[in-house]
Amino acid sequence: MKIATIIVRILMGALLLFASIAYFLKLFPEPEITGNLKIFNEGLAASGYLMNFVKGIELLCGLAFISGKFVRLANLVLLPVSVNIILVHLFLDPANIGAGAFLFLGNIFMIYRNWSSYKELLKA
């Protein structure tokens, strides 16, 4: 189980680093989006939603996962981001849910593996 944890942690870190670095360095052209996802993205842009902040969080969490430092903190910080990613894809773009599903399930797995660290947070 320890090896599986390391593999999931490294893969999640690589995915997050790739996505954030590609976003900041504009390595790929923006994919053409249509339908409700386009409306959703336009709404986020109009609201002033800070995509740079989200990608910065992804970059920091990716570095944490790759380095193995602050992994428990990165799990908690990444949880709302991964939930948002999977819900957007689930409702607006189900064909491209793969990476989001891996990130969400990997995040849940990592929290499960470190559950003893989170027990104190949930005490009343």
Can you put this structure into words, describing what you see?
It comes from Flavobacterium cauense R2A-7. This is DoxX-like protein. The chain crosses the membrane at residues 7-25, 45-66, 73-91, 97-115. Keywords: Membrane, Transmembrane, Transmembrane helix. There is one protein chain. This protein has 124 residues and is mostly helical. The chain has one domain. It has helices at 2-25, 35-47, 51-67, 71-92, 98-113, 115-118. Helix 4 packs antiparallel against helix 5. The longest helix has 24 residues, at 2-25. It is globular and about 45 Å long. 18% of the residues are buried.
Could you tell me the strand content as a percent range?
A: under 5%
Average pLDDT for all residues: 91
- Radius of gyration equals 15 Å
Oligomer: single chain
How many structural domains can be distinguished in the coordinates? 1
Got a strand count?
0
Query: Could you describe the largest sheet, including whether it forms a barrel?
Result: none
* Helix content, binned percent: over 70%
What best-fitting shape do the alpha-carbon axes yield?
globular
Which consecutive residue ranges, at least 5 long each, have pLDDT under 50?
A: none
Q: Gap between N and C termini, in Å?
A: 31 Å
